[in-house]
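Um, can you check?
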Amino acid sequence: MKNLCYLLVIMLTGFSCTKSFNKTNINPNQFENATPEAIIAGSIKRTSDLLANANMDYHWTSSHLLCIGGGSSRYGVGSDGFWEQSYVEILGNLNQLDKKYSTTEGFSNKVQIGRIWQAYVYSILVGTYGPIPMQNALKPEAGSSILFDDEDVVYTAILTMLKDAGDKIDVTKDKLSYDVLYAGDLAKWKKFAFTLRLKIALRCQKNLGAVARTHITEVMQAEANTISTETETAKMGYENIDGNQSPYYIRYVRNSFTQDIAPKMSDYIFTWFRSYNDPRLVAYYDSVPAINRYLLQDTLTSTLDDSLRIVTYRIPYFGYPKAPRLLPGWGLTSDPVGGLNILTYSDPKKTFLFTAEKPFIHLSYAETMFMKAEAAKLGLGGAQTAEQYYNAGIDANFANWGITGTAATNYKNQNGVKFGTSATGYYNYLGLVNTNVPQDDLFKIWLQQWINYYPDGGFDTWCLERRTRVLELPPHTNPANQYINATFSLLPNRWVYPTTVQNYNTPGYNDAVAKLGGDERSPYVNLSFLQPLPNKDWNTQTAVLNFGFVQHWYGTTIQSLQNNGIAYTLIRTYK
């Protein structure tokens, strides 16, 4: 990607600066001289930056794919900046594109691309907060009293907008001369619109019912217009030029964040990877330097006699727990994992995640296959079977990480991964949650989709878990923030509205609270698309330390350690 993108964003910055919520919707003089290319490129980059920063601040923690070290890995409920940047710097700009060029000959496709991106950003906002301004947003005549639309109205409008814009893309007409997502390929933009429509409709099955199913069926009947190869993955590229580097690189490399607050592999996904011999463990995460590795006590047999040997040895990977503090009801006196040196836990693959040029993925080919697998499993169409789509999704994810051949085949053929099978996995180290897989194939689809979202799809993992409750997530025992003041925390259902909404748009805020139908300051108020949060008192559960998920790392015998050249200490031998 050329550094023109950075220059375009700088040029646009002066047109979108305001703090007041009412002014968020009143920028009538924006972009008198800006081109559609500048507006769209700037909006895509701002969205990518916004989501990447939200991952680091919030969504990596809620996804359980990564944890932030140093006590910073806490469930959050949002910030004023996310709302303001979305409305002012992205939607406000795209709205001006629509107003200025919608009736101008030679700009039809550019206007539709802007509308597609608007729909995408609105889908993020409504999935984050619930009721939001959409129909009355960005209208100067609304003044400072901008009422909110309920979720069903917003989702219906988003789906309608995506259908209309996708249908209106004409590959024979105007295209973007500078396109940071698809290099001017209009067919790919059309596929993005159709695939995004499928994604939003799947999210809204509970609240939109027949409307959502109609959209799903229509998209599945027009599969030629959906993402169907890796080259059609929607990703925003970065480059090693100041101002245009990956946000992950900026925070963790350029700004020299220390190890104690850098992201670490979650112990939850670590337990899943260990349960099913998942080769993505070594693709997603770095091994721990030998000096810092976790010292495991294990019991091994021998091929030479019938004695058992208790030994200790160090293992190359280890996950950071969401429960670093023990709850009083668990009956444990000490935590052998939560208090370890932060260097004991595995880092994400730094040569991948922390490079300046790492692209941000918005919608991937692998994700598309998992979405089609769900649609097919629900009987809502598709040229292939649900199992074929599902396997294609795993293959696409593996190929993206350089895992092919025997490793991929062996993984897919396991019980618990293969369609129509079930499996018993390991418990986490506290014995509170397990990685069992039922025979239900939707569970498998959603599980693989969750793993596929690493590392950019933090928001999408949050949506997936809230609408399916497919994962039994361990409790967060260090959840403190101004809205979550409890001994432990469950995954928040939503973010609270920023203070600017309450301060500058009181009528709109009161309208939103009424539409929510609950305590707006509670992160556990239900949104319309999600399944109810499981009501489980984790403090009443019995915790039992269990290290089965890491034992027998190199095999079940003492010879397996010796054959792998692993140093160990023999504690004792017994029969």
